[in-house]
From TrEMBL:
SMART domains noted in UniProt: Elp3 (SM00729)
PANTHER family: RADICAL SAM DOMAIN PROTEIN, TUNGSTEN-CONTAINING ALDEHYDE FERREDOXIN OXIDOREDUCTASE COFACTOR MODIFYING PROTEIN
Organism from which the protein derives: Thermococcus kodakarensis (strain ATCC BAA-918 / JCM 12380 / KOD1)
Protein name from the UniProt record: Predicted metallocofactor modifying protein, radical SAM superfamily
Domain Radical SAM core: 25-241
Keyword field contains RNA-binding: no
MF-aspect GO terms: 4 iron, 4 sulfur cluster binding; carbon-nitrogen lyase activity; metal ion binding
């Protein structure tokens, strides 16, 4: 039975030689819901090809409970269909879209776009779906085009053009349209051409992320290890951005400062089976390669919404402490630690040498090298 949320609860934590009192609030701003972990594609650089997890679709009644629970968060700005799966393969995808909008929530969606029909996209515009991000890693006309997981950029571009036309018919400029691009040595030179292509199609935003290698072979494809001079590419992108395309760029070298979009924007992610993770990174179990060094990422959950309310999980002692330590960046930096080659803590995300569990000490998201769509930043305005 779910515990009723106590608005005046507080926790006292020991912090070095003192104590700190933390009062949890119902201040979640973005709720990511992985309505399915299945996908219709097999993209080579996707987590799905390498994780250890079973696949599944979110139960309809569980989905409804999550929406019920979301009502408890007064600062919630958007529900976002994301995670590591293709939302449109869920057999009740459009029912879920309609239910979110019926309840008055803002809705964002990440998709490869290949399963979208004209009828679905027209309904997106009619319902006022707020944000849709498409995956596309090359310009369709490029001679050296790559197709990750058999996604053809030409098909994706065609879907985008139609969606732009449908939203213009309704005169609402909804959904806002973005494109996610994963940068590798194969496509980095195409980025300016890609930006111009998207601008011509009336796309609103371009989110650029670096590749997070999931196999030893993929390590050679990264461009943030000093092997590529990105300066001329970035200079061109800055010029294009002045013409009206919002471009969110990652870092292309390891820097000291850390800033996690998931922490800074009070995000929670609900997996298809109800487990609540703090971010995409801890949603599933897989191996990643940090500048060539293998690391095992183990899925981590702070509770299951089948058993507790989302408010109880969000304000639990363990989740509250995790967010407090992460927002204040009170964890070590394994990525540039002199002892990383001889340290057992860097082998998994289970715990770090400061006792944080799970460990974010080797996370390339917090270094802004890898990025995911956080709606607040997408268009220089709040969603």
């Amino acid at each position: 039975m779910a515990i009723k949320f106590a608005p005046n609860k507080e926790y006292t934590f020991t912090l070095w030689d003192g104590k700190v009192i933390v009062k949890p609030k119902l201040d979640m701003k973005y709720l990511y819901v992985e309505i399915t972990s299945r996908c219709n594609l097999k993209c080579e650089m996707c987590f799905k090809q390498y994780w250890e997890d079973t696949e599944g679709d979110m139960d309809w009644n569980l989905f409804l409970k999550i929406l019920d629970d979301a009502e408890a968060f007064p600062e919630l700005r958007m529900i976002y269909f994301g995670g590591i799966g293709e939302p449109t393969v869920h057999p009740r995808f459009m029912d879920m879209v309609r239910e979110v909008k019926r309840r008055g929530f803002a809705l964002g969606i990440s998709t490869n776009g290949t399963l979208l029909t004209d009828e679905m996209m027209r309904e997106f515009a009619k319902l006022g779906v707020d944000l849709i991000y498409f995956s596309m890693d090359t310009v369709p006309t490029a001679q050296n085009a790559i197709t990750l997981g058999h996604i053809t950029s030409a098909v994706t571009a065609d879907k985008i053009r139609k969606l732009v036309r449908y939203r213009e018919e309704y005169g609402t400029h909804r959904p806002s349209i973005g494109v996610e691009v994963v940068v590798t040595k194969e496509n980095y030179q195409q980025l300016p051409e890609m930006a111009k292509f998207l601008l011509d199609m009336k796309v609103d935003a371009m989110l650029v992320s670096n590749l997070l290698p999931l196999t030893p072979e993929q390590v050679d494809d990264i461009v943030y290890d000093g092997s590529v001079d990105m300066t001329p590419i970035l200079d061109e992108l800055y010029k294009i951005a002045h013409n009206g395309l919002y471009i969110k760029l990652p870092k292309f070298e390891l820097r000291t400062e850390r800033q996690c979009d998931f922490d800074e924007n009070n995000v929670a992610v609900v997996r298809w089976d109800g487990e609540v993770a703090p971010c995409y990174r801890f949603l599933h179990t897989y191996k990643e390669y940090i500048f060539g060094r293998e690391k095992k990422v183990n899925a981590y959950s702070f509770g299951n919404v089948k058993e507790q309310s989302l408010a109880d999980i969000w304000t639990s002692e363990k989740y509250t402490w995790f967010r407090f330590t992460m927002k204040n960046y009170m964890y070590p930096s394994c990525t540039d630690c002199d002892l990383r080659e001889a340290c057992d803590f860097v082998k998994t995300t289970d715990i770090d040498c400061w006792g944080n569990e799970p460990s974010c000490a080797d996370c390339l998201w917090s270094r802004r090298i890898v990025q995911c769509p956080i709606p607040q930043y997408m268009f220089g305005k709040f969603f």
